[in-house]
Amino acid sequence: MRETAVTPVQVTGTVLTTRRVDAYHALTVVAPGIAERFRPGHVVSVAVGGPHTSMPTRRVFSVHDVKPDYGGTVELVFAVRGRGTSWLAERKARDSLDLVGPLGRPYPVPRDPCACVLVGGEYGSASLFALADTLQQRGCRVDFVLGAASADRVFGALRARRMGETTTLTTEDGSLGLRGRVTDALPAVIADARADVVYACGPMAMLRGVTAVAVEFDIPVQVSVEESMACGYGVCMTCVLPVIGDDGVTRMVRSCVEGPVFRGERVRFEDIGTIPFDALGAPGGRAQEGGAHTRNVS
Amino acid sequence: MRETAVTPVQVTGTVLTTRRVDAYHALTVVAPGIAERFRPGHVVSVAVGGPHTSMPTRRVFSVHDVKPDYGGTVELVFAVRGRGTSWLAERKARDSLDLVGPLGRPYPVPRDPCACVLVGGEYGSASLFALADTLQQRGCRVDFVLGAASADRVFGALRARRMGETTTLTTEDGSLGLRGRVTDALPAVIADARADVVYACGPMAMLRGVTAVAVEFDIPVQVSVEESMACGYGVCMTCVLPVIGDDGVTRMVRSCVEGPVFRGERVRFEDIGTIPFDALGAPGGRAQEGGAHTRNVS
Amino acid sequence: MLTPEMSVDMRTYLAHVELANPITTAAGCAASGDELSQFIDLARLGAVVTRSITMAPRAGRPTPRMAETPSGMLNAVGLQGPGVDVFLESELPRLVERGARAVVSIAGGSVAEYTALARRLADAPGVAAIEVNLSCPNVEDLGRVFARDPAASAEVVASVRATMRYDVPVVAKLAPDVADIVAVARACVDGGADALAMINTPLGMSIDVDTMRPSLAAGTGGLSGPAIRPLAVRCLWQVHAALPGVPIVGMGGVLTGRDALELILAGACVVSVGTALFHDPYACLRILRELEELLKERGFERLADAVGLAHRPPGAGPRQRIDLEESSL
Amino acid sequence: MLTPEMSVDMRTYLAHVELANPITTAAGCAASGDELSQFIDLARLGAVVTRSITMAPRAGRPTPRMAETPSGMLNAVGLQGPGVDVFLESELPRLVERGARAVVSIAGGSVAEYTALARRLADAPGVAAIEVNLSCPNVEDLGRVFARDPAASAEVVASVRATMRYDVPVVAKLAPDVADIVAVARACVDGGADALAMINTPLGMSIDVDTMRPSLAAGTGGLSGPAIRPLAVRCLWQVHAALPGVPIVGMGGVLTGRDALELILAGACVVSVGTALFHDPYACLRILRELEELLKERGFERLADAVGLAHRPPGAGPRQRIDLEESSL
Ligand SMILES: Cc1cc2nc3c(=O)[nH]c(=O)nc-3n(C[C@H](O)[C@H](O)[C@H](O)COP(=O)(O)OP(=O)(O)OC[C@H]3O[C@@H](n4cnc5c(N)ncnc54)[C@H](O)[C@@H]3O)c2cc1C
Ligand SMILES: Cc1cc2nc3c(=O)[nH]c(=O)nc-3n(C[C@H](O)[C@H](O)[C@H](O)COP(=O)(O)OP(=O)(O)OC[C@H]3O[C@@H](n4cnc5c(N)ncnc54)[C@H](O)[C@@H]3O)c2cc1C
Ligand SMILES: Cc1cc2nc3c(=O)[nH]c(=O)nc-3n(C[C@H](O)[C@H](O)[C@H](O)COP(=O)(O)O)c2cc1C
Ligand SMILES: Cc1cc2nc3c(=O)[nH]c(=O)nc-3n(C[C@H](O)[C@H](O)[C@H](O)COP(=O)(O)O)c2cc1C
Ligand code: FES
Ligand code: FES
């Protein structure tokens, strides 16, 4: 597997099209500098609220698609959650949008052809199609497992059916595909496809479950995590989670620059939202024994 | 002269049309409740910035025109000054706009026909045409004196020429009409028209000058003042200026509810921006002698 | 649990005084009450908190008195008002006539002046509670603001408490620009305050980069509006944690029902609405409606059950202990 | 007066250290510097202020560490950083290599720890100045934050000053949530601070009305961004008025050149940019450009002439005297 670091750029893009896709909104934005540097798994960070915004932090979204039109466009697919995404949902064609990207560590791609299972939860599927494209160009077999709470929240089922060797859909309410979660369906898909690697993007609980399944099968798994972010390019230090390094040491690493894609078994899912006692620099931990900080309050 | 108090309403109006008029922007908004209650001199208070705005205070504008279309529309004419007016200038047809109005004390209108000179500075002229209309319907003679820094900032010259018995224009740079200020031209207009009353709307310095001229001629003058406002409907207490009451006592009165139209000679123009020592409740003043407040700091 | 048709019991108590609901105007943000009653029925509010009444009429500060700041505003109105005589003759009776519950805010420059005000109000009919605005300079202490000095605050509160009728609660209103809000709160409660109100406006300033002078004639002014809500929530949280039995009137940047709920979860049992009234004359009733809706959605039968709820010990889950005195880092 | 082609002399002095221009990153808002240098040339900044360096590596606080608030944000990053060893081995040399002037921020839990940091930094090449982050809990005083205690602040500053090389200015960074910022500023200057920096983030909080829990894992967090600019301007104004000879690094909500100019007119000779960097990675250089343009428009030949200019005595005109200790009313 290989990966390349790219330099992000800031682009004031123009919204080309907007559309609704079931429960989601999709925005296509002209942003050549970002499109040309894009690799599957990259994200962009968007300023919201316009001039004199009351929202000083940025919002981060996976890039769903890039197209060569107008020098290069990127498409975002998003759910309305809070103030920033409601503002985004009101954007119209010709509005301008401040994007920074591409950001983060993209999905590493295998050097040689192999069988890949791509697992998406909710809008997490959005980042998988560009990946599938790349994998297929390299001769890989691609199988999809897409899930969500309900049918209207499963993103990209049609495209998955077109692209994938097989496509398995799951919904928690049973309104589409199998009733249940992606992790219920995953073992069979891995077995049937004789999968060599799993890629997953979706809610943290799903990534944890997918990682457990892959570990069970003893195959590598790459997960794209979602942590709350304020900048997306590494300066705010708010998007950290505990990840075990090559040296076996757990560090609080930024998911925007060191991630969002990590090897699943390296992410300490059960410890997210804490500072594990054995993490580098944890309060009371070894590294701090010599220091004066004995409480976790400063 | 008579006046009537009306109850203001809040209306989420829809922008019908937007246009540029020289240096100004004009917005026509469907707001039946306001249009039907409107009298010349009334103002409206506008919320700016949309949902999640960073601008919590309202902006106040004179109503330029009301029309019966769509149940009633109001038109505002405004100059871009700061953040709120730049936002307003970006509104497009079909956007919605939160208006409260009609607000304030309108221009009192004479019971019997008489000769009226209407003096407008910059966008201040906007409020004069509805007044002229009413006056003419009552058989009054109307003469206009409109001025501004430069030609593109003189608002409504054409309409004044159509409506007025005479129309005199002044610009400080001489780019339109007489070079100079409205107060330079006013004495001659009053004399020629044998004016019985003067109405004026414009910058404070202009109102002061117009009042001086009217006092000189010993005729009543009604001025519409502009003080910085946060609400427009009397609750924030930020828009005060020193005005002499019928009892001869100076009070700090709110220009949004007691005004914006005042009898010119009652406004203590030279003391605006201060608390005159003889104002009711002034620090150290008589009214406070019994109290413990000896400094103007609480 | 509630069925959709049921309504939430919105009653709340300011000490022993029952209010029909928790939403009130904030002191100094509703002029005499007449202005808002053009838009809403004041009797539908939990209470109307009056502007801060002073002994003598006050002309207030010179203009400009107001500057907008990001998500906030600065004001230096300077307690413009008619003085206690006119207030008792005309403003208070009009509020009572309109069926409003009146919480009367008072302001003075010395303990004696606060006490004199309390004496004038002691027998006035229709005073549901007294709110003591402690953000006034103490003329006997070089103009140091009472609210920044626990002992001076306590002295004012004790004297007002001793003077007012026993059945009229005395609410001490605190300012956030102190190093330790809990110390001031505790001093006021020890001095006899039946309840606390917070936050008054922290001192701020803005400079007009065109005139290159302060925007306000007074130089500094009080900062209000959504910008200060995080400070209000923090003060409420700290004080409610330290003094869980003391009723708190919360305020600071409440624009919506969600904002009111945030303050309630932090510990407020009454929520005052200030700057939002300049943006929306219907704000109080809209917020009340939104709040009731949010409580209903969350399955509350009574507002009272939500007060301070965010303090409950974290259940199973990866949350850490929350310290009270903390740095911001 | 300037002709349109002339450029403004943007040089400024942090004590005796000359900076090419007044715009710097704010402590803790530019990670190691590497991240921003993808977007801008760090050598073009007045200086890079590092994150607050601690003796040992620190993992910081648990997540969620961030909550957006109206025109602001709360953070509880908790000084996550590599510790002084790694800082000296790799972060500082990389800044120097990039041609950046490095102002090193330090944080400790005791006077001894600050002093130990100063000792480690005393001989490090490329330290243009030391910024002492006083918003840390003092483990020897029940976790009371140094910046809220003038004496404790002065002690830290004195010890750092005594330890650092004489030619490296020591800047004391103050927090606004105190009753009297001038008292803390004065204590620091008396303790030997060559300059002051303000404001660090006031303590705030937000509660998620859906989970009905604090939004941050740490409960409280520091409030930053445009929301706090009026507090920053007021602090700068008060301190510059009281100590006009002391250079001040101003910060708090600077997003544009106009905001930077506002702080400069209030008394700052250096302006740090924090939260704006999360919104716009080019913020520092954009603000610098806008500031220069505004100064030019106003006819300034030198930035230095604008510093504190809003304090000049009002000329003829109806302005009132501006008091320094004032209530917000
Ligand atoms: C790597 C990554 C990829 C993502 N891709 C997508 C996508 O393709 N489609 C999509 O709909 N959403 C995606 N998200 C989630 C998206 O960023 C949030 O839904 C969005 O930021 C919420 O903003 P808001 O203004 O609606 O909510 P608010 O709650 O108002 O946001 C407040 C602040 O919190 C941050 N925040 C809140 N929730 C999240 C979250 N879940 N993740 C990150 N930051 C958050 C925001 O950035 C903002 O700074 C992704 C998140 C990450 C980290
Ligand atoms: C009675 C009255 C009638 C007016 N009629 C018109 C009109 O017809 N056309 C027009 O262009 N302008 C009019 N104005 C002025 C207009 O209100 C201001 O230009 C506008 O509020 C500036 O807003 P801003 O967001 O651009 O500026 P900002 O400086 O961002 O405004 C900040 C705050 O200050 C207040 N403010 C700033 N300047 C003024 C001002 N001059 N008057 C009142 N409040 C101010 C705003 O209401 C806002 O609360 C009128 C003002 C008054 C008082
Ligand atoms: C214009 C204005 C006037 C105020 N006058 C008073 C007052 O007279 N007495 C008082 O205790 N508080 C006064 N306050 C403070 C408010 O009551 C309230 O504590 C503060 O504004 C925070 O709430 P908000 O953000 O909802 O406005 C005033 C606030 C404003 C904005
Ligand atoms: C995420 C974040 C981390 C910060 N870390 C530090 C720090 O390590 N040391 C410090 O002195 N200040 C720190 N600060 C405070 C800033 O340096 C600055 O004083 C404050 O944010 C106000 O400026 P702003 O509004 O431009 O952000 C931090 C602020 C933020 C938002
Ligand atoms: S989002 Fe800012 S460092 Fe990751
Ligand atoms: S503008 Fe608020 S009282 Fe006049």
Key terms:
heterotetramer, A: 298 residues, alpha/beta, Elongation Factor Tu (Ef-tu), domain 3, Rossmann fold, 3 domains, 7-stranded antiparallel β-sheet, 7-stranded mixed β-sheet, 6 helices, disordered C terminus, C: 329 residues, TIM Barrel, 8-stranded parallel β-sheet, 4-stranded antiparallel β-sheet, 8 helices, 18 strands, 20% strand, globular, binds flavin-adenine dinucleotide, binds flavin mononucleotide, binds FE2/S2 (inorganic) cluster
Describe the structure.
The complex is a heterotetramer, with two copies of chain A (298 residues) and two copies of chain C (329 residues). Chain A starts with 8 loop residues before the first strand and ends in a 35-residue tail after the last strand. In chain A, 19% of the residues lie in helices and 30% in strands. With 298 residues, chain A is an alpha/beta fold. A seven-stranded antiparallel beta sheet of chain A has the order 4-3-7-1-2-6-5. A seven-stranded mixed beta sheet of chain A has the order 11-10-9-8-12-13-16. Residues 287-298 of chain A have low confidence and may be disordered. In chain C, the strands form five sheets. Chain C has an eight-stranded parallel beta sheet with strand order 3-18-17-12-11-8-7-4. In chain C, a hairpin with a 2-residue loop joins β5 (66-69) and β6. By secondary structure, chain C is an alpha/beta fold. The complex binds flavin-adenine dinucleotide (2 copies), flavin mononucleotide (FMN) (2 copies) and FE2/S2 (inorganic) cluster (FES) (2 copies). One flavin mononucleotide (FMN) binds next to β4 and β16 of chain C.
